[in-house]
Each structure stands twice: as structure tokens, then as C-alpha cells.
Amino acid sequence: MKKDIAYLHAKKQERQPITVLTCYDYPTACWQDEAGIDIVFVGDSVGTNILGYKSETEVTMADMRHHLKAVRRGVTDAYLLVDMPYAADRDVKHAVANAKLFLADGADGVKLEGGIEKVPIVTALVEQGIETCAHIGHNPQIHGSKAATHGKTFTRAKRLIEAAAALADAGAKLIVLEKITEEISQIITETVDIPTIGIGAGRFCDGQVLVINDILGIGPLFKHAKRYQDYDYCTFEAILQYTNEVENGDFPTDDNVVHIAADKLARVQKWLKSER
Fold this sequence. Notes:
By secondary structure, this protein is of the alpha/beta class. The chain is built from twelve helices and eight strands. Helix 2 (26-35) links the parallel strand 1 and strand 2.
């Protein structure tokens, strides 16, 4: 069954947690879709996690479209969400044009970062029939990669609650809460009608999102994440074993090769002799 916005909103109403993971390639998309992930998310974190960029601000529309298309080929049932990269939503005209490109590439919806200042952008996207996910709290495109927790003071907590309400009123269908105190995330979740997706935002959001690299154990471990396997260690050990076996002559073995029939080999050898 193809999951859509109505399905995700129903999960909020029924208090069923929504599962979200970032995804950057076809095979991972296939695994996530088969595992039943609700939202497969092509995040601009592709820049720092896959492309070797120093920050998300280096990610381009071309980068995002390339990876979106790859992920699209592996997704059948999940809702496919994609990030608007840095400056792609700098004004209404660019935001609408770029979001339409993503929809043409197979996205179900787009996500953009920012608070109340992004209300006009969200409004314009919604008016064009583009399903939009807002993102408040820590915004990597705005605040940089080093995340600090938001919502620790009255003023900042109030600003977050007001921003969430304004973005929901503008027509956002989902909202990501990143690095926000658990109490304020709970208040937002209970006061907006749209699903909240938390990352480092506590236990009371309607759903949770993590970067696929973090759950696989690729790179450093962050407080908000959990490792479900040690990809770094296992992958390095596999590469090291392969290197050693090739260098030592242990790979390939007879199990890894295909032979020509003896009579045909004899004919080849006879022909070679005649050519000398």
C-alpha cells in the first residue's frame, strides 16, 4: 500500500509512531521500503555523509535530484520526502520552481528549513498543491553542523511554539523538530494538528527520524542517535581481508573461476601453435 499524507496524519490521530530514515541510494531505498519505513527521506545530509562536503550548504539541486532519482527507483510503498537544499527556497519563485522539479523526479513532498520567516514560502508551495514539511529547531543550513539544543529559555521556547503553529496554519503537512527540549517538543506535538517528526527532540513526537549512517555505525556516534550495527568496523575488516587475500594469492580460488571444456581448450592451444 502506497503511504500518503492522509496515512501519516491518521497515524498521528491513532497515536501510532511514524518511522523516518534518511536515504541516499537505490539499494538502501529497497531495504527501507521492504522494512516498512513510513517516510524515506532524501536529506541534504547527503552532502556531509556521502559526498564529502564540509557542510550542507554545499549541496546543490543537481546533487539532490541525482540522489532523489536513485532512491525513487527503490521506493514502492513509503512516502518519499526530499530536502530543499541551501538557497533553493530563497524566495517564492525559486522555491516553487525547484519543488516542482523534485515532484517531477518522483518526490511526494519537499522539506524546507526555517521558522516563521518561511511562512510565505510554505503558503506558496501549498497553493501550488505541493506537500510541504517544515523544519524548526536546529537547522543545519542556517545554524551549521554543530547542533545546540533549542527551547531552553522561555523566549526561545515561545518562539518555537509560535513558529510551529504558524507553519501548520500556512499549510505544512509535517514538521521536523530537531534538537529541541523534550518538553517543548511535546507541547508542539500536542498543539499542532500535523505530525511532528523528532530528531534529538525527545520521546513525545509523533515520529522519529535518524540519519541512516548513524544507525548503521558509519562515522561518529551522536547523543541523539543509536547504533544498530558497526558498519565502520565490519566494512574495514572486509576490505582489509580482501586486500590481504589478493596480495597473498588466496583470492580468487577455483570456486571463483569458470573453465573452458578440455576439448575446446585443446583446439585453442592447437590453433595457437599453428599461428607461431
